[in-house]
Structure formats: structure tokens, C-alpha cells
Amino acid sequence: MKKDIVFYILIVCAAIFTGCRQNDFDVGSEEKLVKAVIDNYAKSWITEDMDLYDSTMSSDESLVHIGGSQGLNWIQGWTELEEIIIGQNKSFNETNISETRAWINISQSSSFAWAVTLWDLTTTLSDGTKCLIPLRCTWILEKQNGKWYIVHFHKSIGIKSVRDLMVTE
Question: What pTM, to 2 d.p., does this model score?
Fold first, then answer.
């Protein structure tokens, strides 16, 4: 009986210690690297720099995104996404993004990150309409060959909010 109790105590202790293992990487440094990728993504929107945009994204053709501006169509792979972003760049002018909040989480393996950012995007549409669009952006990033890339993102806005926040002159 005494051996059984000692055995169970050892099992519990082993479970506790393995569950409390420390990360083998600097979480703060990884968060800064992920934040830099997201910041470059935002900068690529503002400057309409497709090379910078490309440097933030995984170019895997099997990736799937859901495009709100395309009637919630499924966007398959980098090639299709790139075409949509080029079209968006033609529709948006004088774009600016101010980030109001960011949360970044790194996986225990340091191979994936999940982040949420809150943006206020201001832009002038091709018809001259000026808009302030509050966005909630969700990001999944993967570390590939030591570098972080966006492998999935989603942006949410409320349709009523966009209409109500149009800037009138």
C-alpha cells in the first residue's frame, strides 16, 4: 500500500513538472518579430508596396482566405490573393492605418503565433468617399526557415459602422 502511494505521488509530480516546462526561446523577442511582420503588412497597405506585402505572406498555393469584399468568396493560394490585393490598391487612395491595440501569443514550440490587432483604417475610395473603418484583424503566423510569415488572416468590420463613419466634407 505504501509503495502504491509513493508511486502515485511520483506520477502526480512528474505530470506537474512536465506541464510546467519553460520555453526554450525568448517569448518577448519572438513577439517583437511577429509584430514587425504585422507592421510591415500594414505598411504595405499604406504604401501599396506589393513586394513588402509579399515578404509578409507565405506564398503557399494551398492556403485559403475568405474575402469579404469579394462576396465571401474563398480565396485559394497566393496568386489569387495577390490579384485581389492589387485590385484593392486601385480602389483605396490616401490610406492610413493606426493601430489601437495588439495581442500576440507564441506557441510553446515557437513555430506558430496567433495575434489580434485593432486598427482604424482611413482611406478615400475611388469614387471620392472618405471612410474611417474600424478593423479587428486576426492573424496566424508560422515560422518557416527561421522567419515569421502570415499564413492566415481575417479582418472584421461592421457594415453599419462603415456607413455611419463616412467622413463628410
Answer: 0.76
- Distance CA(161)–CA(53), nearest Å, equals 27
Nearest residue to 129 (alpha-carbon basis) of 104, 100, 92, 154: 92
Q: Alpha carbon of 108 to those of 28, 37, 78: distances in Å?
A: 13, 20, 28
Summarize pLDDT for 73-95 with one digit per residue, the tens.
778 888 888 888 898 888 889 99
Identify which of 18, 19, 21, 29 has the alpha carbon closest to the alpha carbon of residue 143: 29
Query: Which of the following CATH numbers is that of domain 25-164: 3.30.450.40, 3.10.450.50, 3.50.50.60, 3.40.50.1820?
Result: 3.10.450.50
pLDDT tens, position by position, 3-59: 656 555 555 555 555 455 566 879 999 999 999 999 999 999 999 999 999 999 988
